Amino acid sequence: MRKSERPCSIPESLLWTCSYQFGQALVLLAFFYLLVFAGYGFDWPSQAMILQLAMDLNLDRSFLLIGVTSLGALFVVVPLMRLRLGPNFRETIGWRTPRHEEVIFALATVIPIAVLGDLIYELSGSFLHTGITQRLSSQTLQTSSLEYLQSTLNGVPYPILVVALALGPAVGEELIFRGVIGRGLVHRHGVWAGSVMTAFLFAIAHVSPSHAIATLPIAFLLQFLYLKTGTIWIPIFVHFCNNLIAVSMMRYEFVPDINISPFAAIGFLSYLIVILVAFESRRRNWSVSQDFV
């Protein structure tokens, strides 16, 4: 980090946390306005006609909602990053090409962290099944995150799901939570405190309590990989692969066949720890161009 750059503070981090959601909402409103304008011109339709247009376009399952918003938000986020970090922001956040060994180690973490995240989602959903949530359908509360994704987006073409739910969020969220928030909080508050705060902000951005809790393991993993490699492409790659697994399993209906036991979860966790220890041991022999730790 350049001496002239002021690290990201906690209040500013909260604003950045909201920026991605705000960017998606802004893009969605702008795009829908263009659709209405294309169909009706300056003769603005009534509310009933607008609702009918939304139903005709099947917005809850189309690229217009999940594709344009996730990718279009990058046109909001990237200019804000350049404004905040300066014209050399790519160098600042670590734009270098990852080493082959870094990619291999990163890829080895994808399966165990995906399994652990989904197991935590199920456990947290059961734990939070109290109070008001008891009035909801037990079937909804007991389904995993993959089953929920399958029930809500079934029928959307697979390439659209990959772009909208795997690639778009991976790039947008990592640029914000690793490139701006995570890097800044670590420099301001230290590695441990900065990483913990970044992980919790990353979880908060996923809104749903169960989903937020389930994202904590991968949030810490992505922060670890970013700090150790110094390149933004490694967390983007792992985040994309994690999302891709969820999208693929949903699309091809693998979810009902999977039942992870606590003993299997311990095995995946042990495997992940071994991979990270081996990665750290191997990393010490590399000459990293930009190491944030």
Structural class: mainly alpha
Record field, number of beta strands = 0
Approximate strand percentage: under 5%
Write down the Rg.
Answer: 20 Å
Distance between the termini: 11 Å
Helix content: over 70%
List keywords for this structure.
293 residues; single chain; 74% helix; 0% strand; 15 helices; mainly alpha; globular
Concise summary:
With 293 residues, the protein is an all-alpha fold. The chain is built from 15 helices and no strands.
Characterization of this structure:
This protein is mainly α and 293 residues long. The protein is built from 15 helices and no strands. It has helices at 10-40, 47-57, 63-72, 74-85, 89-93, 100-108, 110-127, 138-142, 145-153, 158-189, 191-204, 209-214, 216-229, 233-251, 262-283. Mean pLDDT is 80; it is low at 131-145.
